[in-house]
Input
Amino acid sequence: MKKKFKTRFPEARIKKIMRLDDDVGKVAKATPVLISKALEMFMKSLIDECTKETRSRNAKKISVVHLKATVLNTDKFDFLREIVEKIQDPINGEEYDEDGGNSGKGKGKGGKKGRPKSSAGQAVNSKGLTKELSSDDIKNEDDFDN
Output
């Protein structure tokens, strides 16, 4: 009897991504399981470090600024530097507020109609609905699409 491993990331999607590379031939059944576990461990490590940064700033929610600071200050995340350097820092040394938005004055709620834009600490899903992100989102298995 084969043991079924429970993974947090969909094995079929991982296998599909692997098949996109022309150099990859057949994929063993264990490979997507191992990659899923490695991805889970990487995400846990990143979120744990980001949580430390958030707490050091006495914030309640993880924001993009905290993620950027974590990547820039932690050697093991150096490979992500090019990506996070594109993230704008708060203007004039302002911090992001608890809701994940810039606490300084800026654009109001008005503007273009249509699909909402995501702000720091939020994600916009395929239906255009905005959702607040927290460290629990990574731990909650039900949030991942299958």
